Amino acid sequence: MAGRACVVFDKTLTDYDFGPSHPMSPLRVDLTMRLAESLGVVGGPRSTLDVVNAPMATDEQVATVHTAELIEAVKAMSLDPYQVDEVHGLGTDDNPAFEGMHTAASHIVGASVEAARRVWSGEHLHAANITGGLHHAMPDRASGFCIYNDVAVAIRWLLDNGAERVVYVDVDVHHGDGVEKVFYDDPRVLTVSLHETGQMLFPGTGFPADTGGPDAQGSAVNVALPPGTADAGWLRAFHAVVPPLVREFKPDVLVTQHGCDSHIDDPLAHLSLTVDGQRAAYLALHDLAHEVCDGRWVVTGGGGYSVVDVVPRAWTHLLAIVGGSPLDPHTETPDDWREHVRTLLGRTAPFRLTDGRTPAYRDWAEGYDPSTWLDRAIHATREAAFPPNGLDYLP
């Protein structure tokens, strides 16, 4: 990889905290950064990943995507969190209010905007914000653990600062509905989401026929995967859909969201990927960034609720790939990291960065089997999204 990479991070980003009983624990971020540091991915003398501070987004930056009414509601709930604002999706089970919520959410927005700025300015070739990826937040309401949509604000910043074409690829197990909504009728942004079908999972959207607004047909792409889809099927779907579209769209920059809740151990969803399959996806997206947009790659985190066993390993692989020095999957997790987990939580942490799988998939060009739900899902997406983008959807 030519050029430096960075992760935008400081510990106060973990102030985005819905409380001890909420599945989106900031501990997952802390454990990730501890593991990455212990392995020398960040902070070590041989690290190829700079750690840079995260600025706070201004209200004006947040308002490039969100309504003034939502921002004011978040501020009000930040001062008095013991209330419910159903109109703006605040104070609910998914999005409980907490003191300082506006500041914490704005900080994550600022970190993603900074990642975008560093890539677009050329200061860094790749930039990551693993606390970001809050892709469900809508312009006028919070949704799905997401108060403000940092990814959408970062993409808007790129467009406002000269980017003409942006591709957003979302590999979270949940549909990237908020980002899609913001850019649904904007032909400059191609949003691609691979997720468990909305027939089975929140937010209940993201079907192949959802292909963009009247002025941007083909700009939204949705792969709605059947529950139980594992590494081979997921990678088959990814490679059948994502690379052809990204190559045809020819973006100036690639923005990706890496929720790792597609893992078989995640408690909130029903896909069956391993850390090894997720790592293969990260490598593929890294390679696409270099192939189509001179390596300009903005990376965010996302969902992931297996706080000890999955998220730290998956995102440490991600950060290593962002830094241009992928880790051997068979690398052992350091003793000090495992001891920290044992002392803090009384749990035994994973011993290796691998789940012991070697990801492989059957290429779509070999033909599809209409008797399988997976292949019907892939075919439906290609049939809906490929022609508006000038591609043949047939194998």
TrEMBL record:
Limits of the Histone deacetylase domain: 22-320
Keyword check for Lipoprotein: no
Pathway given in the UniProt record: Ketone degradation; acetoin degradation
Alphabetical list of Pfam families matching this protein: Hist_deacetyl
Annotated PANTHER family: HISTONE DEACETYLASE HDAC1, HISTONE DEACETYLASE HDAC1-RELATED
Keyword Ribosomal protein (UniProt): no
Keywords linked to the UniProt accession: Acetoin catabolism
Signal peptide coordinates: none
InterPro entries to which the protein is assigned, alphabetical: AcuC, HDACs, His_deacetylse_dom, His_deacetylse_dom_sf, Ureohydrolase_dom_sf
Protein name (database record): Acetoin utilization protein AcuC
Family: Belongs to the histone deacetylase family.
